[in-house]
Amino acid sequence: MPLVPASLDDDGLITPEVGGWAEDKYKLVALYANLFATGMKAKWDERVYIDLYAGAGRAKIKGTGKLVLGSPLIALTVKVPFDHYIFCEFDPPKLDALTKRVQLAAPSAKVEYVADDCNQAVDRILAKMPSFSKTHKVLSLCFVDPYDIGIKFATMKKLSSRAVDFLVLLAFHMDANRNYSHYLKPKSSKVDDFLGNTGWRVHWNDAQNTGMSFPQFLAREYAKQMASLRYLENPMYRMKEVRSDERNLPLYHLALFSRHETAYHFWDEVLKYSTDQEKLF
After folding, report:
1. What pLDDT does residue 106 have?
2. What is d(CA 37, CA 40) in angstroms, rounded to the nearest whole number?
3. N or C: more exposed end of the chain, with fewer CB within 10 A?
């Protein structure tokens, strides 16, 4: 398991407030990052962790005030650390807090920062990724954690030109379903950019006739698009659903996309563990 402390003291730096469900998300990320970093060490010469929405490195759980590590600090504190880290964050105060926390948590780690929106900075992110050759094999794990469906498929496509596995938060309910009427309008390009497909409305009309929900439709279409990039197609039942604490409503799905079946074996272990914990409580 990652070396995450049981409790954190306030360090005085900016700490965004998040819903209680975020703690579940971070636990899933911690489990998978640990399995990935350890399991791939002997098979690849260099393992890279990329965080496209890195944040401030810490978060505060709404209602309880509990402090938790964000995904960058989680990845830095796995038992077998990655060889290289790339953190992308658009908000300057968050990035400043992140850099200070990284320096304290892992001063010797090889960390690079990109101060921009990942959709605008994808070429710069690619430039920071280590080069791959026959004698130097590089595998990256890219965590994609947007607040909405704002990650553009064009960004994913560019990053997929390298050996990259993606762990993606797909905000099907907390964004796409809530803003359905707006996104359906012809002038809205949000879903177009998310799916990398301007003709999705025609497919959605057909899907509605089968009784499919909008989140189910988006999950299917997104998996198809990732399969077009030679990723193993990931059905919705293999995506981990995370629900709200207050009303137990679905918020988003956490999905893995890899070109190697080994990664899905790791993911199945994460899903099994999280399901067992839910049954326990």
Report:
1. 96
2. 6
3. C
Dump pLDDT digits (tens) for 21-63.
899 899 999 999 999 999 999 999 999 999 999 999 999 999 9
Residue 73, number of CB atoms within 10 A of its CB: 24
Q: Phi/psi class of residue 196: alpha, beta or left (left: φ > 0; alpha: ψ in -120 to 50)?
A: left
Give yes or no for a contact between 262 and 39, defined as CB atoms under 8 angstroms apart.
Answer: yes
What are the sequence ranges of the domains in the chain? 17-175+232-271
Residue type at 4 in one-letter notation: V
pLDDT 10s digits, 63-113: 999 999 999 999 999 999 999 999 999 999 999 999 999 999 999 999 999
CATH architecture of the region 17-175+232-271: 3-Layer(aba) Sandwich (3.40)
Residue type at 101?
A: R
CA–CA separation, 173 and 145 (whole Å): 14
The separation between CA 182 and the C-alpha centre of its own chain, rounded to angstroms, equals 25
Closest to 1 (Cα-Cα) out of 279, 191, 273 = 273
What does pTM read for this prediction? 0.94
